[in-house]
From TrEMBL:
Pfam families: PPR, PPR_2, PPR_3. It comes from Salvia splendens. Belongs to the PPR family. P subfamily. InterPro entries: PPR_rpt, TPR-like_helical_dom_sf. Keywords: Repeat. PANTHER family: OS03G0856100 PROTEIN (PTHR47447), PENTACOTRIPEPTIDE-REPEAT REGION OF PRORP DOMAIN-CONTAINING PROTEIN (PTHR47447:SF28). This is Leucine-rich PPR motif-containing protein, mitochondrial. PPR repeats lie at residues 303-338, 339-373, 374-408, 410-444, 446-480, 481-515, 651-681, 686-720, 721-755, 756-790. Gene3D superfamilies: Tetratricopeptide repeat domain.
Length: 824
């Protein structure tokens, strides 16, 4: 500091202090390191000043043009670009402008680090910059800069979060050659790619990528270079395959992933595979996965979703009795509480298998626990009650559903009511309800409602009214499907009204269905009229089998199942949270060679035409029903032969229809041949197959085998519906086995199924013809007390019963008169 231009004098105090210091401290030498540090500080200060100047320029409107003017003065480097991209005071658009400005400089080229940093900036706002990201990816590839796995994963994750699946797939196209099969990429790279493909419904592309990765993993000897996507991506692919019903592809992916032993299967994956494989009938695989979950323990311990899937699978495959035991086990010892889905699954399974008492008990427990029942639960209960001939209980439940609980009804609810009223002999009430719902609008009726009413009108021979409903159905915009057409065409053929068929076809709204029917009919008639070789005509279509017991495999001893149950009961772990499930898993693990389940609760779906070129099994079944309704068995068999020659696989309805016609004609050996062919081609069987078999055995007088078939049905998880009970009671009664028939009658009532008019008519008839008039009269009294309305068959049975009573009285009177004359 200077005072008046002269140096400030040093005071005596300062001089004295300086003289006291050592001489080494008075003269300071600067080292090389200190010079470098000082230079670095100066350089850092310069960098800060440059960064601030660039940021200030970019923040101004048109700032990028100011940079053009000072372009040569700015010392561009990778460090400078990275610092600007990491600067928090600049928004993403300004950083992108600066990055592009740097790209146009002649003496500068971006590196992988700068590209990675700019992608990191843009991926946080992918929905704004997805086009910019794609452009930069293309520029990066053109400049020959490699895209590393971390940056690629960041880009793909950003696109997926923003829902830009097309952009994610476009990035995949850019790097496909470098990505697929490259060992330098992390497995995490493929996961978002597969997720994006599945959510874009590109199942085939995702499947091919995953199979390539899995196959390379199976062939690779070095496990360190194996690339397998994470569990989320693999589960996403499996979910897509399940929804698309791609069974073979699902099993291929599942088995290959398991073979690699690197598949990071989580509890979601276990539950997914249990549900999918169970729906496709692979019970042994399902129970094997459950057993594996119990062995791994920890985070893989079965949860409520696992139990829900297991109970659903058991109900689906007809093992409702086992499902009820697992249900009780779930509540008692698993540590989980049933939720809404658990109750719904159990009620649906019990209602479908005619265990209506169990379904009502579970429904009461559901309400007691405070869980609100939805429309699906009420529909299942209504359907079960209607099919069990519990009409009053069904009507009371419907009132509770609407008035007390306020549950919203659906078209399906009203379809159940209308169909149930028809089947319970309340035709007028059903048609009146249908007319009331029509007046309320399309929200209360649909195409299935019309189809139900048309079917019952055709059965009652009200064909003209059915045709009017078809016209009305088409006017409301509903599709006339093959089920409706089949019902009408059969009725028209029976009455010989050929002209009405053309009227029917004019009122079909589906544009593809009419030409399909006409073309299919002409092709079928041409095929059936074409000449066949005589050698082939004399070749039987089905083998002639006299012993049906061999076809049904009724030779196994009765005590085998009980011994197996006792063995598994002894092996169960009493400390396990699921001892019964453990025993089931051990049982099916020891029987891993068994095939698909022989019985299923799956129902058929309504069929539609598949196009003009279709020669499918649904169309065959339509015309097969027509021929069989007219009694033209030879034409039906020839149509079946055409079907098999064209390699179209028949389904259970096809086999059941032909077998039923053979039984009605008395061709039992041929019927068992059809059953044998069905066992080789179609699994599992349904309840209609067993009904036909027992009907045939009853006509043959083999009631002993009918009882064995019943035992086989129960062992395979089947159930007895009211038609099956009536068929069995008729077969046993006509064979003179009245005790067993009455026992089945009592079992039917205790199981929650109310006997209908056919049940009582059968019991009255067989007891009357056997001379057991008192028992026949008792069944008549039971029928009237139950409120079951008689029909014309009942009148015939009563006429026969009255004649038998009169004959008995006459015989007694004749005997008494004869004895009196002898005494005289």
């Amino acid at each position: 500091m200077r005072i008046g231009g002269l140096p400030r004098p040093i005071t005596i105090f300062h001089a004295s202090v300086a003289s006291l210091l050592p001489i080494t401290t008075r003269f300071r030498f600067v080292t090389v390191a200190e010079k470098a540090a000082k230079s670095a500080n100066v350089s850092k200060l310069g960098d800060l000043l440059v960064d601030a100047a660039i940021a200030k320029t970019l923040s101004k409107p048109g700032g990028i043009h100011e940079l053009d003017k000072k372009g040569d003065a700015i010392p561009l480097s990778e460090e400078l670009v990275l610092r600007m991209l990491r600067r928090g005071s600049l928004d993403s658009s300004r950083k992108l402008e600066f990055f592009r400005w740097c790209s146009n400089r002649q003496n500068y080229k971006h590196s992988a680090c700068t590209y990675s940093q700019v992608f990191k900036v843009l991926c946080f706002l992918t929905h704004h910059h997805h086009d910019d990201i794609l452009e930069l990816v293309a520029t990066m590839r053109r400049d020959g800069v490699a895209l590393d796995s971390i940056t690629l994963k960041m880009i793909l994750d950003g696109f997926i979060r923003a829902g830009k699946y097309d952009s994610a797939l476009e990035v995949l196209d850019y790097v496909e050659r470098e990505l697929i099969g490259s060992s330098c990429f992390s497995p995490d790279v493929y996961s978002p790619v597969l997720v994006a493909l599945m959510r874009k419904n590109q199942i085939s592309i995702a499947l091919s990528i995953l199979l390539k990765l899995v196959d390379s993993a199976l062939l690779s000897a070095n496990s360190e270079n194996v690339v397998i996507p994470d569990a989320i991506a693999c589960n996403e692919v499996l979910v897509g395959l399940k929804k698309a019903d791609m069974r073979d592809e699902f099993r291929q992916v599942y088995s290959n992933l398991r073979k690699t032993k690197l598949y990071p299967m989580d509890i979601w994956g276990y539950n997914l595979c249990i549900h999918a494989l169970g729906c496709w009938g692979e019970l042994s695989s399902v129970l094997g996965l459950f057993k594996e979950m119990k062995e791994r323990n920890g985070p893989f311990e079965p949860d409520l979703c696992t139990y829900n899937s297991l109970i659903h699978v058991l109900c689906l495959l007809g093992k409702v009795k086992d499902a009820l035991i697992v249900w009780e086990e779930l509540k008692a010892s698993s540590g989980h509480e049933p939720d809404e889905f658990t109750y719904r699954i159990m009620i649906q399974g019990c209602a479908k298998s005619y265990r209506i008492n169990d379904a009502l008990r579970i429904f009461s427990e559901m309400q007691y626990n405070g869980i609100r029942a939805g429309t699906v639960v009420y529909n299942s209960l209504l359907d079960g009650l209607m099919k069990s001939r519990k009409l009053m209980e069904a009507c009371n439940l419907f009132e509770k559903m609407v008035d007390d609980d306020g549950v919203r009804t659906s078209c399906w609810t009203y379809n159940i009511l209308i169909d149930g009223l028809y089947k319970n002999g309340r035709e007028e009430a059903a048609y009146s309800l249908f007319c009331d719902l029509k007046r309320k609008g399309n929200g209360f009726v649909d195409g299935i409602t019309y189809s139900i009413v048309i079917l019952h009108l055709c059965r009652e021979n009200w064909v003209e009214e059915a045709l009017q409903l078809v016209e009305e159905m088409e006017g409301r915009g509903f599709i006339v499907d093959l089920v409706t057409i089949t019902s009408l065409v059969i009725a028209l053929y029976r009455r010989g009204q050929w002209d009405s068929i053309e009227r029917l076809l004019r009122h079909i709204r589906d544009g593809n269905l009419v030409p399909s029917l006409i073309k299919w009919k002409s092709a079928m008639e041409a095929s059936m009229s074409s000449p066949q070789s005589k050698k082939r005509d004399y070749t039987p279509m089905f083998p002639s089998i006299s012993d049906v017991a061999k076809v049904l495999h009724l030779t196994s001893p009765d005590g085998e199942g009980a011994e197996d149950a006792k063995q598994f009961s002894d092996e169960a772990d009493e400390w396990s949270s699921s001892p019964y499930m453990d025993s089931l898993a051990n049982q099916f693990a020891s029987e891993s060679s068994r095939g698909p389940p022989p019985f299923s609760l799956l129902r058929g779906v309504r069929v539609l035409a598949k196009g003009e070129d279709s020669f499918d099994v649904d169309m065959v079944n339509t015309y097969l029903s027509i021929f069989l309704a007219k009694g033209k068995l030879s034409l039906a068999c020839k149509l079946f032969e055409i079907l098999t020659n064209m390699r179209v696989n028949p389904n259970s309805y096809t086999y059941n229809s032909i077998m039923s016609s053979f039984v009605k004609k008395g061709y039992f050996k041929e019927a068992w041949g059809v059953l044998h062919a069905m066992g080789e081609a179609v699994t599992p069987s349904d309840i209609a197959t067993y009904n036909v078999v027992i009907q045939g055995l009853g006509k043959m007088g083999r009631a002993d085998l009918a009882k064995a078939v019943l035992d086989k049905l129960n062992n395979e998880g089947g159930y007895l519906d009211i038609v099956m009970y009536n068929t069995l009671i008729n077969a046993l009664g006509k064979a003179g086995r009245f005790g067993e028939a009455v026992e089945l009658f009592q079992q039917m009532k205790s199981g929650g199924i109310n006997p209908d008019v056919f049940t009582y008519n059968t019991l009255i008839e067989v007891h009357s013809k056997a001379g057991l008039l008192k028992e026949a009269y008792n069944f008549l009294k039971m029928m009237l007390d139950a409120g079951c309305a008689p029909n014309h068959v009942t009148d015939t049975c009563l006429d026969f019963l009255e004649k038998e009573i009169e004959r008995r009285r006459y015989d007694k009177a004749s005997i008494l008169r004869s004895e009196t004359e002898d005494l005289c």
